[in-house]
Amino acid sequence: MPVPNPAALEFFLTRRSRPAKTLAAPVPDRQELTTLLTAAARTPDHGKLEPWRFIVLEKAALARLSERIRPLADKLGIDADKVEKAYRQYADADLAVAVVFSPKDSEKVPHSEQLYSAGAVCLSLLNAALAAGWGANWLSGWASHDRSFCEDGLGLAPHESIAGFIHIGTETVAPPERPRPDLEKIVEWVSE
């Protein structure tokens, strides 16, 4: 018989991301963050390839990245409202972890499965932070898909990309609950 963990199930049934713009200092220290990264790295990983890695971005690094946003937006012709939102994502943050998708050559494990593993790492880190009592949010944004931003700003290799930025900090405002999926519309039961 399975051994239930009601507290863990209740966490998953009630978990809620916190908007990054509502997170502030203090943030986890290196020891606390190492625990969260350890939890995140215990994710499904077909072939044990570890097709992901972490870049911990502290306040000064985030400020440096924010200064790349406006020139990059001008070059790409990004709308002004999107520019300000992207700028604030970095300029106002105290801590974010970039989860880097770093696929490995494998005859056995396709690229798509490795990408799913990187996404699972993002969700695992988000949930670990929330379970530890921190506010957290998973973001990406247009800049994270630009090669110059990724390679020059973050040091990614040409074959790597951003799976997500997990912002972690102290929640300043409790977010309202949002509508959740209607299972009647998305679940199909197959008995034969």
From TrEMBL:
EC number per UniProt: 1.-.-.-
MF terms in GO: oxidoreductase activity
Entry keyword set: Flavoprotein, FMN, NAD, NADP, Oxidoreductase
Reported cofactor(s): FMN
Secretion signal span: none
Pfam families: Nitroreductase
Residues in Nitroreductase domain copies: 24-169
InterPro entries: NAD(P)H_nitroreductase, Nitroreductase, YdjA-like
Enzyme class: oxidoreductase
Similarity section: Belongs to the nitroreductase family.
Protein name according to UniProt: Putative NAD(P)H nitroreductase
